[in-house]
Specification:
Number of domains: 2
Number of helices: 14
Structural class: alpha/beta
Number of strands: 13
CATH architecture of the largest domain: 3-Layer(aba) Sandwich
CATH topology of the largest domain: Aspartate Aminotransferase, domain 2
Shape: globular
CATH superfamily of the largest domain: Type I PLP-dependent aspartate aminotransferase-like (Major domain)
Strand content: 15-25%
Distance between the termini: 62 Å
Radius of gyration: 22 Å
Length: about 425
């Protein structure tokens, strides 16, 4: 047995830190789905230990992580470029970067694009640069990584204001109460927790009227939702070019942040932004100057994925929408509440009694269903439960298995009920 090495004369601070995440720590110990070791994968089924589970915790929405055409494209790129470029972006980079930036600019319809390894790199470096010693107006339910970027900005002299989630009236009140500039309004596009998106037109108008930048993190929307057309296969729209295009908004006073690590299953992220700002970030943003770049395999799968998306991505989105609607309809049949009103493939289910959370998670695991667990401090205490994340690589058999298990859970445990009437949007 390895010798226990103390970190300090007293490690009581570790105990105090654990007290702030007690629910999550308990679930980690009691539920094999948290911090699980996945020993094997077959399609959207995974094996942990001796248990096979249908995977509804993945954010690989388009199923590109398992697409044979994309996988087979990687070796040629490795032969040409090796496994990893050795330079930070400012030092140099393979021409693949510019190829991707051009393709993304065309796809999302912005002025220009700049790539970073991750969205977290973007938030923690770009938000402070945009805000300077001005102000960040932060949606109270914005992703933790956006919050972290705002806290870095505050440490560098910015003022941070929180407005109630998806409440433009409260935001307008805060904007009018402060004359400080520059101003950044930061929020999620498609919210991974709630499966919904704000009315970006309202927030964009407030940004333009109040000399602010609207900073939108569309990590869970890019690849899933896109521009609406008369010949779209489903209400998710076409091309998967993000929530800005999906809602028919423009990029005036708007910066789009998104990544390829969800729908495209590649370690890469980007901003859609004016070229003048791009030139500034190339020398001012620390990750562009110092961080290790994305591996060549991720650049390769991004390029191949963008091509596959153009040719058959809408078919994947149709499958995604159809399976999501089946699960939402099942929840409606069972009168189980979910905040999802959009038909987007992230569906939160809440327990009525927080004491049931451990048992519900264990029942799901024992029934062969792998989901994302919502525990304190990941969500507010009145939102404990689990999230179902559907991908185009799931199949109808897994969806029916999930629907059956949801019925069993509804009989055995107290889930949040009294779901408001949901109007489904038919597939066209």
């Amino acid at each position: 047995m390895a010798e226990r090495v103390p970190l300090h004369q007293s490690d009581a601070w570790l105990g105090r830190r654990m007290e702030t995440v007690t629910d999550l720590a308990r679930l980690k110990d009691s539920r094999p789905m948290l911090d699980a070791v996945v020993d094997e994968r077959y399609g959207r089924r995974i094996r942990t230990g001796d248990r096979w589970l249908s995977d509804f915790a993945s954010s690989n929405y388009l199923g590109f992580d398992q697409d044979r055409e994309i996988i087979d494209a990687v070796p040629a790129y490795l032969d040409r470029w090796g496994t990893q470029p050795s330079w930070p972006r400012l030092g140099g980079g393979p021409a693949l970067y510019e190829e991707i930036e051009e393709k993304v600019t065309e796809l999302v319809g912005g002025e220009d694009t700049l790539l970073f390894p991750t969205v977290t790199h973007i938030h923690t470096s770009v938000i402070p640069l945009l805000a300077g010693t001005g102000a960040v107006f932060l949606d109270a339910r914005a992703h933790r990584a956006i919050h972290d970027g705002a806290m870095v900005a505050r440490g560098q002299g910015a003022t941070v204001h929180h407005f109630r989630h998806d409440d433009p009236a409260h935001l307008e009140e805060l904007l009018r109460s402060s004359a400080i500039t520059p101003r950044v309004i930061a929020l999620d596009g498609v919210c991974s927790m709630l499966g919904s998106a704000p009315d970006l037109g309202v927030f964009a108008r407030l940004a333009r009227q109040n000399d602010a930048l609207l900073y939108v993190d569309d990590t869970h929307g890019f690849g899933v939702v896109g521009e609406r057309t008369s010949n779209e296969l489903c209400p998710l729209g076409t091309r998967g070019n993000g929530v800005i295009r999906h809602q028919g908004e423009t990029y005036e006073n708007v910066i789009l942040v998104a990544c390829f690590s969800k729908a495209y299953s590649s370690l890469l992220a980007f901003l859609t932004l004016p070229t003048r700002l791009k030139d500034v970030l190339k020398v001012a943003a620390h990750p562009y100057r110092h961080s290790d770049p994305s591996p060549i395999a991720s650049l390769a799968t991004t390029i191949a994925g963008l091509d596959v998306n153009e040719r058959r991505g809408d078919l994947s989105r149709l499958d995604l929408y159809r399976m999501t609607e089946r699960v939402l309809d099942r929840l409606h049949e069972l009168d189980i509440y979910t905040p999802n009103r959009s038909g987007y493939p992230s569906i939160q289910v809440r327990v009525a009694d927080r004491e049931d959370n451990d048992a519900v998670g264990r029942y799901l695991f024992d029934s062969g269903i792998y989901v994302a667990m919502d525990a304190d401090p990941l969500v507010p205490m009145d939102e404990l439960g689990f999230r179902i994340q559907i991908t185009a690589a799931n199949d109808d058999e897994q969806i029916e298995q999930l629907c059956q298990v949801l019925g069993e859970i509804n009989e055995r445990f107290e889930l949040r009920q009294a779901q408001p009437v949901r109007t489904a949007v038919p597939v066209t």
